[in-house]
Design brief:
This protein is mainly alpha-helical. It has three helices and no strands. It is elongated and about 75 Å long.
């Protein structure tokens, strides 16, 4: 019931196996993350920061999930 591979098909199958026949190298979790400091150094807490103000906003429609 199995098909025998012809010359062209066998060569294509061999090329696919050579390219995709193994899994990529495992990446450690530590290599996928990086640490970042919170806040600006030397800035007093609660001070207005116009470049970072877009991060904090209040929208009732978003809070309610509308």
């Amino acid at each position: 019931m199995g098909k025998e591979l012809t010359g062209t098909t066998a060569a294509a199958a061999e090329a696919r196996h050579e390219r995709y026949g193994h899994l990529p190298e495992r990446i450690l979790f530590e290599d996928m993350t990086e640490g970042a400091s919170t806040g600006r150094a030397g800035a007093e807490p609660g001070a207005y920061h116009p470049e970072g103000s877009w991060k904090y906003y209040s929208c009732l429609a978003l809070d309610l999930g509308l």
